[in-house]
Amino acid sequence: MDDDASNPLRRMSSRTRKVAPKMAAALASSDNRNQAALARLEALENDNAGIETVEINDEDEDSLDDDDQVYMQKKQSKSMKRKTRQAKALEARKAPRTFLELLHEANLESLPPHVPSYLRAAVGPPSSTSRRHFCTVCGSAASYTCVRCGVRFCSCRCQNIHNDTRCLKFVA
Amino acid sequence: MQPSTVVVLDNGGGLIKAGFGGEMDPTAIIPNCLFRPLSSKKWLHPSPISTTPSSAAAAAAASDPIDLTSAAVRRPLDRGYLINPDLQRDIWAHLLSSLLFPQRPNLGGPSHSSLLLTEPLFSLPSVQRATDELVFEDLGFAALYVADSPSLAHLYEASRRPSGLASKAQCSLVVDCGFSFTHAAPVFQNFTLNYAVKRIDLGGKALTNYLKELVSYRSVNVMDETFLMDDVKERLCFVSLDVARDLKIARCAMWETWESSRFEWVYLVLTVCEMGNEGNLEKDDILRKPGKENLLRCTYVLPDGVTHTKGFVKDPDEAQRYLSLTDGDRDQTPNGNADQPQVTEKLENRKKTDLTKNEFDLTNERFLVPEMIFHPADLGMNQAGLAECIVRAVNSCHPDLHPLLYESIILTGGSTLFPRIAQRLEKELRPLVPDDYRVKITAQEDPILSVWRGGSLLASSPDFEAMCVTKAEYEELGSARCRRRFFH
């Protein structure tokens, strides 16, 4: 399909194309869809369904270093006062980082290609690119795609359910 | 000097298996997390899941279960690697001081013992440094040995079957499908060939989350119920031997619940006729079992917080019914007719929907969830499935090893507990492997513990002491230099 554009013999019309703004948005939306798919894969590795991130920082205080005596004393002496900037910085430093941050920091790309590393151990893309699609509503084999958000469904009934409840949920 | 003891710690993303070297079973198995139930403001340590009922801690936990409904979880490991050393220290300290060492009061704590710790393959240098700091500086162990789990699983398998190929040829292919990810790792002479290891970024955690997503959309919102859905997954999910067929059967289950339109009826008759032609199942068998009677349908009862705090499978027989669906190659088992009267007996009970109970039905979710290990692409991941992963791992080894590796594939890790996973893997693997090689897949009866048991064996071997890095060496040389001793 993409070959059409690269083919030099193909004559292109000089007429300017008029595309409705909504249509243009829809055409650009494949990127959105990819992002939504990636976000969903990320979400599969979450411990709590994305609600916990704010609360963790409050509770972190009681698990702080005990051997950090200076800080602990300071904390006890003015536990009722508001946090100093320094304390906040300390906490930020101690806040757990995600694995992807650590991975980025380790800079594994710079290793020579023969060194086995986390990145090189990934199994890589499947040999056959065919992907089976399952209906997002009922789970059966799905042969239809939602024209608005690209999600799959298997029948008219599932399409209606999809349109009522889920359509464009992931693609803003 | 008295022989010092070795603490063996298999630090998984889901469960920590901890015990003393030389023993058969770990002393304590606890979830590697802290959780906060709705009723509490503090993060609590989970109670141990113990295999030995004799231990006092397990008995106490059984009598007073914490209500885990909607509990929030914090895990020190993300994607299998240590990201939160503070949290891990809390968990380890709790484990050592209240579960492990009280069992052996004469040992004298960590400073008199060495530690055998498992670490995921390809751990990052920063993670390794943090681990070393934890072990030596915070917990104060006298010595440390870091092992990788495939080699330990191989060690255990080789010692369990001394006449097996894995121990004779000293090589095997360990497929470790755990909580965070899945590795296919060739092991040769007790060393993992790290250049040939292949990984799929899919493990038990992602599968549970996927199941949560499916159930939340289709019946009840369970997005916060990690522990509940873990239980559902462990009890109800299985690996399908023929996905297309099972999907069609599962489709019949919707027949009664969604009032059937004419179109659906025609569709069903057509699919069933088509299946009848394949000769797998009798037409009538399927058409006779719509709705509640469907072979794949199963009901799970949610906890109500009053009479039971744990969910359960409504009818355990119902959960086993899929077993009557045999592989297409074999004839159908004749017991299909034998248990027919039983089914009608129970029909009365089952038809009554107990309105006081909250429950949901699972049909195709039961096999579509483990299916993702075999086809991550279906989830939108750009990764090959388990069978291809194994083939690629083997192909990265020396050609002379190929037949040996294919003939001793060891399945380990908690996510290999799905029923029929070995059969399905063999079915997928066979067409990909050259005809003159034999494929033999060994599933372990206790895949969660095999790595720990391998560690226990290694810890009791006479030269274990010499392989360790002592605290003095660590203080002298630092983390990075000491790590070179472990060859990874």
Automatic annotation (TrEMBL), chain A:
Q: Which residues form the HIT-type domain?
A: 135-167
Write down the PROSITE patterns for this protein, in alphabetical order.
ZF_HIT
- Name under which the protein is recorded: HIT-type domain-containing protein
User: Any keyword Cell membrane?
Assistant: no
Which CDD domains does this chain map to?
Answer: zf-HIT_ZNHIT1_like (cd21437)
- One Gene Ontology term from the biological process aspect of the record: chromatin remodeling
Residue numbers spanned by region Disordered: 1-28
- UniProt GO cellular component terms: nucleus
UniProt xrefs under InterPro entries: Vps71/ZNHIT1, Znf_HIT
Pfam family, any one: zf-HIT
Q: Which UniProt keywords apply?
A: Metal-binding, Zinc, Zinc-finger
| Highest taxon of source | Eukaryota
Molecular function in Gene Ontology: zinc ion binding
From TrEMBL, chain B:
What are the protein's UniProt keywords? Nucleus
Supply the Pfam families for this chain: Actin
**Signal sequence coordinates:** none
Q: Which GO terms describe its biological process?
A: actin filament-based process
Q: Does the keyword Nucleus apply?
A: yes
What the record says about family reads: Belongs to the actin family. ARP6 subfamily.
Q: What's the protein here called? A: Actin-related protein 6
- The scientific name of the source species is Ficus carica
